[in-house]
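Researcher: Here's the sequence for the chain we discussed earlier.
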Amino acid sequence: MKNKGFGKFEVLTMIVLLMAIIAYILWYFLAGSDSQKFNTMKKNAINFSKVVSTNNNSFHNTEHVYLGEVITEGLIPNVKSPFSGKDCSVSDSKVDFDNDLPLVTLQCDNYLIDAVRFSGDYNNVPIYKVGKWQTEKPKKNYEEKVLYNCMDGTKEKYPEYYEELYFVFRINEDFGRSHFFASTIGNDCRVVTKTFYRTKVRVK
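Model: Thanks. This is the structure I predict for it:
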C-alpha cells in the first residue's frame, strides 16, 4: 500500500517555498519603508530650500547658505534624518544659488541629495550613499574635496574639517567677523587645509 501522505521531499519543498514567500514579503515591506524614507528626505530638502529662498536676505553670503546658518537664524529647527531620527548634517547641507535658482544639498546620516534643483515631480531625484570624509583615497566610486580648519595654538580649532564657506561662517560666528572667503581669515587664526575623499554611490 502506497503512502499517500507527504514525503520528506515534499515537506522540504514546502518549507523552501514558504521561506521564499516570507523573504519576498519582508523585502516588499522593507523596500516600501525605504522608499517612504527617501521621499521624506526629498520633502525635507524642498522645505529647506524654500525657507532659504524666502529668507535669503537674512544671510551674510546670500549665494551659499548652509543648514547650520539657517538653524542659527532660528528660521528652521534641526532637520531630522528619516533613517535614524538624528540631526542631518549642518555643514554638508546647503542651498547654492545659480542665476537666482536654488540648488539644494541635504545629507542625512550617510544619504545625500546633491545639488538638486527641484521642479515638478521629485521621484527621479537621485539619492547617494556616501562614506565619511577621510584622507585615504578609496580605490573607486569616490569624490575629493579640499576642506578647512584653523590652528588654535598647536591644536585644530574645530573637531572636523569643513567646506570653505561653512568654515568661513564658523569663523565669522566665533570671531565676530564678516569674511566671505578663507583667504582673508589669516589675522584671526592660521588656516589649514587637507584633501579629503569619500565614497559616493547612487542608491535611488
